[in-house]
Amino acid sequence: MTTAADIMNPGPQWIPATETLDRAAQLMRELDVGALPVSDPTDPRERMMGIITDRDITVRCVAAGHDPSHVTAGDLCQGTPRWIRSDASVDEVLDEMESHQIRRLPVIDDDKRLVGVISEADLAHHLSDEQLAHFVERVYA
User: Fold this and answer.
1) pLDDT at residue 44, rounded to an integer
2) Exposure string (b/e) for 59-83, b if CB count within 10 Å is 16 or more?
3) H/E element holding 39?
4) Does the pLDDT at position 24 exceed 70?
5) What is the rounded average pLDDT of the residues 35-44?
6) All residues at 6 or more sequence positions from 2 whose CB lies less than 8 Å from its CB, including other chains
7) What is the three-state SS of 115-139?
């Protein structure tokens, strides 16, 4: 059985909730990624408090007239972060992403530590054409 660990990108880069969005955008450019998990710097276990995307920075900060050098990653984190265990099946991954209409899904290990992220590109490399079409239909509906 293919698991989340088999299809994820390992070793995701964190950004602290206290870091500004201009730095987040720079880090995204350096890493060539479109999203960063946000960590709670007050939690010694570095737990994830959310995820921010390049689109969040553009739409919710810059287009809203805010200065990204004065808005933090934590300011954009809303709601409960979604994640999946590394031993979850591909069907569970798809269900989580489809039911919440998300395009990137953090992966955690047994100790609830972030070990990877699954993106649409990862799915495209591991799903059948039929599975991928169903995913796209559900997430973009």
Assistant:
1) 64
2) ebbeeeeeebeebbbbbbbeeebbb
3) strand 35-39
4) yes
5) 83
6) 89, 90, 126
7) EEEEEHHHHHHHCCHHHHHHHHHHH
Query: Cα(72)–Cα(66) distance, rounded to whole angstroms?
Result: 11
Structure tokens at 87: 């031993």
Helix (H, G, I), strand (E, B) or coil at 90: helix
- Domains (ranges, CATH) in the chain? 4-139 (3.10.580.10)
User: What is the band of 69 on the pLDDT scale with cuts at 50, 70, 90?
Assistant: very high
Picking from 20, 17, 36, the residue whose alpha carbon sits closest to that of residue 28 is 36
Supply the DSSP symbol for 29: H
Nearest in space to 87 (alpha carbons), one of 18, 6, 33: 6
